[in-house]
């Protein structure tokens, strides 16, 4: 039963459905917002990069907690897994509440700090204050989804993603077009729809979370404390958080560089973000499923199976990513025309489709082996290579070649490709070394030694 529950396919396919629906939400969101204006699309794309950057503050705890929960369940320490889940949820709720207050209080200065073009400031103020004001819901939703998945239940978050997407799309339609009695609020309505759908999703996830462990979570558990377990979470989580922060802040910097080039480049990149999601969707779900599986196998002491699991995920994921990127290259220009009729934006997007064919295999290699290293607790290594590669290659070279030298968005994309392959190659070398897997084997031998000594003494 446990083995089937933590098999790669059982874990990965609900994650794929959930991620596909998130992709669909983003695509429909962008398509609907594009009926307002290209400026509105740029605001949503820019603001979402900011929100992604802020989520790293609570993702530090949530990511570490998810890995520790899978490891504890693998080693049959259900009560410790439950405690980790409760104390981690409390921590992320506090962080999310602080971020909500910040975005409600100073949305306009935040938009200007990010070098957002002046003509976008009024729209950005409304969107940032509304969606950013709901960051506590984002914190709760992402934390609960992560922890529920790592108990082996990947179907629950999938079903909730279905409901959230349907509600969000229907409300978007109502607010944008003033349909079925909704006020015609434009971008403000899209922001309100986002917050309401996240609230409903958070409530249902909380209901599932209460019964996710062998012993039901009750109200009195709000007072649970365990410094030792929280320290264990943070030992894995803080490098993971820095790693994630490197990515989102480097992407935020790259969006700022694109804003310097012009609103056309910024809008084109926003549309490409939506299309690119299609490319690695299935591969990314396989990588996430493999991370849960490897963490569980690692906790159970099955280190050889854990080692092989990463390569199995790559063997399945790489061909899928290449196939998806090829399909996007063929049909992408037609899809882009659904979002905008601006000839300059379409020309930029079409040229990026070719570069995307190079980008996606490197991204798949990097995220699969990086997630595998994270699953066994080797998060400091992935943090270190992210700090070096993302800031020197992806961000530094993007500014130098794209802005200073003047080669534009093509050069920026080239730097992103180089970053993915560099980190993927370094992660491959590290995984082959099996450092943490060998340490786990040594730990298990030490734990078994006293038992063997006692048994031998009894026989004597």
Automatic annotation (TrEMBL):
<keyword id="KW-0812">Transmembrane</keyword>
<keyword id="KW-0472">Membrane</keyword>
<feature type="transmembrane region" description="Helical">
    <location>
        <begin position="233"/>
        <end position="261"/>
    </location>
</feature>
<feature type="transmembrane region" description="Helical">
    <location>
        <begin position="126"/>
        <end position="147"/>
    </location>
</feature>
<feature type="transmembrane region" description="Helical">
    <location>
        <begin position="159"/>
        <end position="182"/>
    </location>
</feature>
<keyword id="KW-1003">Cell membrane</keyword>
<feature type="transmembrane region" description="Helical">
    <location>
        <begin position="50"/>
        <end position="71"/>
    </location>
</feature>
<feature type="transmembrane region" description="Helical">
    <location>
        <begin position="313"/>
        <end position="331"/>
    </location>
</feature>
<keyword id="KW-0813">Transport</keyword>
<dbReference type="InterPro" id="IPR048279">
    <property type="entry name" value="MdtK-like"/>
</dbReference>
<dbReference type="InterPro" id="IPR047135">
    <property type="entry name" value="YsiQ"/>
</dbReference>
<feature type="transmembrane region" description="Helical">
    <location>
        <begin position="281"/>
        <end position="301"/>
    </location>
</feature>
<feature type="transmembrane region" description="Helical">
    <location>
        <begin position="188"/>
        <end position="213"/>
    </location>
</feature>
<dbReference type="InterPro" id="IPR002528">
    <property type="entry name" value="MATE_fam"/>
</dbReference>
<keyword id="KW-1133">Transmembrane helix</keyword>
<dbReference type="Pfam" id="PF01554">
    <property type="entry name" value="MatE"/>
</dbReference>
<feature type="transmembrane region" description="Helical">
    <location>
        <begin position="83"/>
        <end position="106"/>
    </location>
</feature>
<protein>
    <submittedName>
        <fullName>MATE family efflux protein</fullName>
    </submittedName>
</protein>
């Amino acid at each position: 039963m446990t083995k089937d529950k933590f098999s790669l396919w059982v874990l990965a396919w609900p994650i794929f459905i959930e991620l596909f629906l998130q992709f669909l939400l983003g695509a429909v969101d962008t398509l609907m917002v594009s009926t307002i204006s290209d400026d509105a699309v740029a605001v949503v794309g820019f603001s979402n990069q900011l929100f992604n950057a802020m989520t790293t503050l609570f993702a530090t705890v949530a990511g570490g907690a998810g890995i520790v929960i899978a490891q504890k369940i693998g080693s049959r320490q259900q009560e410790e897994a439950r405690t980790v889940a409760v104390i981690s949820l409390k921590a992320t709720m506090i962080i999310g509440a602080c971020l909500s207050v910040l975005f409600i209080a100073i949305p306009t200065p935040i938009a200007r700090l990010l070098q957002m073009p002046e003509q976008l400031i009024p729209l950005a103020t409304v969107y940032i204050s509304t969606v950013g004001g709901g960051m506590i819901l984002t914190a709760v939703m992402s934390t609960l989804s992560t922890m529920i998945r790592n108990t082996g239940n990947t179907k629950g978050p999938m079903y909730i993603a279905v409901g959230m997407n349907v509600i969000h799309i229907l409300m978007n339609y109502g607010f944008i077009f003033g349909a079925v009695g909704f006020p015609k609020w434009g971008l403000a309505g899209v922001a309100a729809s986002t917050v309401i759908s996240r609230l409903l999703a958070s409530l249902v996830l909380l209901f599932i979370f209460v019964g996710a462990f062998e012993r039901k979570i009750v109200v009195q558990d709000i007072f649970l404390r365990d410094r030792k377990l929280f320290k264990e979470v943070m030992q894995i989580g803080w490098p993971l958080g820095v790693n994630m922060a490197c990515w989102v802040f480097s992407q935020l910097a790259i969006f700022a560089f694109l804003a310097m080039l012009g609103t056309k480049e910024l809008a084109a990149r926003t549309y490409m973000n939506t299309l690119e999601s299609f490319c690695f969707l299935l591969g990314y779900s396989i990588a996430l499923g493999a991370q849960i599986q490897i963490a569980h196998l690692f906790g159970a002491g099955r280190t050889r199976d854990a080692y092989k699991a990463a390569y199995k995920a790559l063997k399945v994921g790489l061909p899928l990513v290449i196939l998806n990127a090829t399909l996007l290259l063929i049909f992408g220009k037609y899809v882009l025309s659904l979002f905008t009729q601006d000839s300059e934006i379409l020309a930029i997007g079409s040229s990026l489709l070719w570069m995307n064919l190079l980008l996606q295999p490197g991204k798949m290699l990097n995220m699969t082996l990086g997630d595998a290293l994270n699953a066994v607790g080797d998060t400091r290594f992935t943090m270190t290579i992210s700090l070096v590669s993302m800031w020197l290659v992806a961000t530094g070279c993007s500014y130098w070649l794209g802005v200073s030298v003047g080669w534009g968005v093509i050069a920026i994309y080239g730097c992103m490709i180089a970053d993915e392959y560099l980190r993927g190659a370094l992660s491959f070398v590290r995984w082959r070394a099996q450092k943490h897997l060998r340490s786990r084997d040594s730990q298990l031998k030490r734990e078994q030694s006293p038992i063997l000594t006692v048994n031998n003494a009894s026989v004597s």
